[in-house]
Amino acid sequence: MTAAPAHPAPDAPAHPSADPGREPGTALRRELRAVHALVHRDLLRLAAQRTHTALMLLQPVLYLFVLGGGLAALIPHSSLGVGYQTYLFPGVLMMTVQAPAVVVGIRLITDRQSGYLRELLMAPVSRSTLLLGSCAGGTIVSTVQGAVLLGLGGTVGLPYDPLLLALLLAGMILASFTITALSLMLAVCLSRPETFHMLLGLVMVPLLFLSGGFFPLENLPGPARALAAVNPLAYGVDLLRRCIALWVPDRATTAGIEWYDWQPPLLLEGAVLLTTGVLALLWAAHRFSRPE
Amino acid sequence: MQPPAAGDDARTRAPLLTAAPTEPGGTRSAAQSAYAISTRGLVKNYPGPDGTTVHAVRGLDLDVRQGETYAFLGPNGAGKSTTVSLLCAIARPTAGQATVAGADVVARPDRVRRSVGMLFQHSALDPDLTAEQNLYIHARLYGLRRRHARARVTETLETVGLADRRRAPVRTLSGGMRRRLELARGLLHEPRVLFLDEPTTGLDPHARAQVWEHLRVLRDLHGSTLFVTTHYLEEAENCDRLGIIDHGRLVAQGTPLALKSEIGDDLVVLRTGDDETARQVVGRTVPPGLVVTRDTEGVSVRVPDGSAWIPRLCAALEAHGIAVRAASATPPTLDDVFFHHTGRSIHTPQPHRTPAAPAPGATTQATEEAS
Questions:
Q1: What is the per-residue pLDDT across A130-154, written as a single tens digit (0 to 9) for each?
Q2: CA trace torsion B149, B154, B160, B163 (10° rounding)
């Protein structure tokens, strides 16, 4: 096997059928390169659309300082255990990661409409790989944006402890993955971006409000709490909030998710998120791989 | 003359090793010696509206040789795009078989897709990324290693003459440049067969000529097999061979010259002072059995060796006192060939001509083509 890679360039034009530059790649490697290509595309797009990214990041920052700052004066410390801005922080992190994660689904639909998806489907990799690549790209882009917001933790009184930051980052990766997978699952079922936008407008605001990011869920009426218990955003927010509580016990706040008055442990919450994401992705891959 | 033993050894070993992972050498060389594309009884049906079935392709037998430029000529909706997607293994045939670049499209779609390149009718690039970035991502999707991918991006950009625009975002490129960039994208993985679905639709004549120039270079320098669908007759004329498809069936196949000489007869058109009388005179002069027609263009008749007939016809008309204003003899065109085989002109306007908006997705595209 040493002969071929030793001088690939001079051989390339002479033997076009000899698959130059590809022969050491096993099937798996090929699929991984395709996943990497799609992640690379997402990162390049992120770099190319700086204004768009900055505006997307501005929204959660405004929530944190304008809404958070305004309400902090009204809400006494005693009701939440912490200042309102500190309380709001996990919710703002979730807000930051959900937006780019949801965009992945919209892009799948617009790619399908523009014909770009067909170009992707021509590639000699399985369709599931393409979906996995989109999901990985969305997860990474969302996490990158969330990490930027994480830098603001100090302004709401969180310590810049590397372990806490790593824990929060891990929580955001998990939440980003699940939301991206759910968004892709929706996207493979819908054919028009307008429908997707309408559905988002209908669903996202209640989901955000029922995530426990803005106010504690325990004060909500029963049906709303039941809805919150199946809201992936609520699990994400709760996960992040409890990571913070784990680190700074004096910042411990009220309970979030409860199943019949029982609070699931942190790891179980993470497992629920992960399972939801994996199932959504598997189902989306199954739908997406159907031959025409 | 003999190279050193080690070098010789390496050289004989390298092709063997590189060929081995893809398939046993024997079958590959056998397939290579035969046809680049070969189909037998290829059929594709789509479920149409109201439970009907749309027969997009009905029993296609095609043979395209290695290194040949083959034009697939037909009006819109004849089944061209459907055939191409079957040959590229993006759609599964309902029946029949097809071998492309030595691999069966049903049994080994992955291998077919690896060895073919495709330029879609409504192609798409990522407008926010640069020309270079678009190509690099595509090269990686096709499994090229990083360094090789970068090298191929540079090479193909040079091939299509866009090396100076490599860092330009795609949205700033003109239509012709985008088409050439798409051509470069199709060439990244050095396909053995390149499919081009209406490669020049929507381009101005200058850009069209440029695209064809690049295609000719590809054929001449790299010996690529090109399969071009088109409804431009002048483009089909440039190809080595062409097939005419109508209603999902191949109605004629051959070199442009052979197809035209099959019709054989030149079209002689005379413009006279009195076309109606002239028609009768011409009808008596030419061999019996030929149809003489009269329309706004004048009196026309198809005869072999038409230019030799003009003086005789003129003399006959002069004898009847009819003034001949103009006379012409035209050898048969591909449109005549098309008319001969399908009973209508390819230029007959179609209701769903000019797809202004890009077709939404592959499936709708297919049904649009089929309907």
A1: 999 999 999 999 999 999 999 888 8
A2: 150
Domain that holds residue A158: 27-72+83-288
B113 and B128 share one domain: yes
* Residue at B339 is within a domain: no
Say whether both B102 and B238 belong to one domain: yes
Residue B291 lies in a domain: yes
Q: Which residues of B touch A46 (CB under 8 A)?
A: none
Contact A48 B169 (CB under 8 A): yes
Domain assignment present for residue B344? The answer is: no
Measured at the alpha carbon of residue A28, what is the angle toward residues A27 and A30, in degrees to the nearest 5?
65
> Does an H or E element contain B230, and which?
strand B225-230
Q: Is residue A181 over pLDDT 70?
A: yes
Q: State both tokens at A116.
A: 């770009």
CA–chain centroid gap for A289, Å, is 23
Minimal Cβ distance to A121: which of B13, B90, B138: B90
Q: What is the CATH number of the domain that holds B313?
A: 3.30.70
For residue A7, tell me if it sits in a domain.
Answer: no
The domain containing residue B294 runs over which residues?
A: 265-331
* B360 in contact with chain A, both atoms CB, cutoff 8 A: yes
Q: Which of B22, B359, B366 sits opposite A19 (nearest CB)?
A: B22
pLDDT at A158 over 60: yes
Residue B336 lies in a domain: no
- Using one digit for the tens of pLDDT, what is the confidence trace for B48-93? 788 788 888 888 888 899 889 999 888 877 888 889 989 988 888 9
The answer to whether the CB atoms of B142 and A123 lie below 8 A apart is yes
B78 with B55: CB under 8 angstroms?
no
Single residue among B259, B280, B301 that ends a domain in this structure: B259
State which H helix or E strand residue B6 sits in.
helix B5-19
The complex's ipTM? 0.82
What is the DSSP code (8-state) at residue B72?
E
Instruction: Tell me how many domains chain A contains.
Output: 1
Query: Per-residue confidence at B123, pLDDT binned at 50, 70, 90?
Result: confident
Q: Is residue A239 part of a domain?
A: yes
The answer to whether residues B359 and B368 touch, using CB atoms and an 8 Å cutoff, is yes
